[in-house]
Every structure is written in C-alpha cells, then in structure tokens.
Amino acid sequence: MGEKIKVRNNVKIFGNGTQSMIFAPGFGCDQSVWNLVVEAFKNDFKIILFDHVGAGRSDIQAYNQDRYSTLNGYAQDVVEICSALDIKDAIFVGHSVGAMIGLLASIQEPTYFSQLVMVGPSPYYLNDPPHYFGGFEKEDLLGLIDMMQKNYIGWATFFAATVLNNTAQETVIKELENRFCSTDPLIARQFAETTFFSDHRSDLPKVTVPTLILQCSEDIIAPDAVGDYLNKHIPNSLLVKMVATGHCPHLSHPEETISILREYLNVTAEVR
Fold first, then answer.
1. DSSP letters spanning 187-237
2. Number of domains composing the chain
3. What confidence tens digit (pLDDT) does each residue in 184-220 have?
4. Is 36 part of any domain?
5. Which residues does residue 160 pair with via DSSP β-bridges, in sequence order?
6. 28: alpha, beta or left, given left = phi > 0 and alpha = psi -120 to 50?
7. Which residues contact 61 (CB under 8 A, 6 or more apart)?
8. Please, which residues have CB within 8 angstroms of residue 259's CB and are 6 or more apart in sequence?
9. Domain that holds residue 249
10. Which N-terminal residues, if any, form the signal peptide (predicted)?
11. 70 within domain boundaries
C-alpha cells in the first residue's frame, strides 16, 4: 500500500537530516516549483516532495472526481503519504491551496506535523462583506473558469501573469505558464472549482500546530486582508509580510523565502 501511495503522488525523498520537511505545490503546479528552495534545506532535513493527483508525474489513473471535489480529498492524500513514510513531527511547507491542504491534514492528524508554513494561503477566495475580503467576486471566478474551458492555453498565459502580478521576470512567468499547460485541462478546471469555491474559514481555529503565514506584497490572489484574517483566527500563528510581490515567492523571490524559513525554524527550534 505504501508503494502505491508513493507512485500515486510521485513522492520523492532526499536529504541528510532526520526531521522531515514536506513541500506541497499550489494549484496547477508540480513539486519542481520548490527546486530553488529545497536545496537550502537538504543538508539539515529529509526533504519530501510530491505532486497532487492529476498534476506533474502523479498517477493520473488515481484521479477520482468525487474524492477531489473537496480539499479534504487532497488532505487525505497528505495524511496517507505521512502514514506510508511513518512520519512524525514534520515541517509542512505549502503554497497557496497546498497550504490549506496541509492545514486540513494537520487538523486530521496533528502528530504528523511540528510546524506549518503557509505561503500565500487563503481559506476563502470570495468577498463576504462586511467582515471578510477574499479578493474576488463570484462572477470573476466563474469568468476565469469559463475561460479555462473555452481557451485553456489563453487562460494559462493570462493567469500566470496575474498570479505573479506582472512583476516577475519574464522567464518566471513563462515557467509558471508552462506548468499550467502541462496539467490536464479537465482536471485543472475541476481543481480550480474545488480551490476557488471552498470555504475553510471555520477550520482555522481547529489548528493545533504552530503556524507561519507568509504574506506577499501586492498579492492579487491572497490580498493582505486574507493574511491578517488567517493570523487572527489560527491559534499560535505568526504572520510575516514579505517584500516579495505577487503570489509565488518561492519562484520569484527564493532568497527571501529561504531566509524567512531559516529564521523561523531556528526560532521555533529554540522554543521547542
């Protein structure tokens, strides 16, 4: 069963440390998005990379529309990976929806995790006035998903620039665009619907694992108000506002991402 799960999620393990550090990609991306970051930690940690089912080199035959119609299905995958690898007290680093997937996994099985690091997370992408500003109106997201269905390549080009807020180097934008284009369009659209229309605000107070929230500047996907909301509602959380702009600091600003991670892990190690 363990080998089947490793193949399903294309799990890769390397590094010289004893404590595990799990990196989860965000929407439309595979594990390679972490390449610029994991090198800095492989001498001190056991690095675990994986792909969400339907992305990267995961087993596409394992994709089940019912299971992955909610983020809990993806969180169950993380729990099963941890179980298969007999993991305890791992540091979970997730980007965007990958961060929320890790949060849900930590609620289900907190002993698997010692810390959560959430990069550009959002519990809910829709505006819900007067008390919550997620950044999008429902019509905006329906329009994005409609574009995915009608012109997937055009959507990938547009969304890559939007996610990076047009401030990243052209090569980084193209790299993200190519990752979107390598995902099956039907699965990508279903994952988009699952991501953008899920509401996990009520789960935030259930988190028992110390949590670092990285909030980028000028992040259209997860604006400042979302980072503040998460920090207010997740117990034992720390919010760090980055100089990095856009939504993918691990791609556009890897040095700052590494620096913040190192500082946080050193501090939490001292506390523990």
1. HHHHHHHHHHT---GGGGGG--S-EEEEEEET-SSS-HHHHHHHHHHSTTE
2. 1
3. 888 988 999 999 999 999 999 999 999 999 999 999 9
4. yes
5. none
6. left
7. none
8. none
9. 2-123+200-271
10. none
11. yes
Q: How far apart are CA 191 and CA 204, in angstroms?
A: 21
Give domain status of residue 140, yes or no: no
Using alpha carbons only, give the angle 165, 167, 171 rounded to the nearest 5 degrees: 105
The distance of Cα 76 from the centroid of its chain, to the nearest Å, equals 15
Q: How many whole angstroms separate alpha carbon 68 and alpha carbon 74?
A: 6
Structure tokens at 246: 């856009």
Q: Could you tell me the two tokens for 73?
A: 């299905």
Beta bridge partners of 91: 21, 115
Which are the catalytic amino acids? 96, 219, 247
Task: Please give the model's pTM, rounded to 2 decimal places.
Answer: 0.93
**Domain at 39, CATH number:** 3.40.50.1820
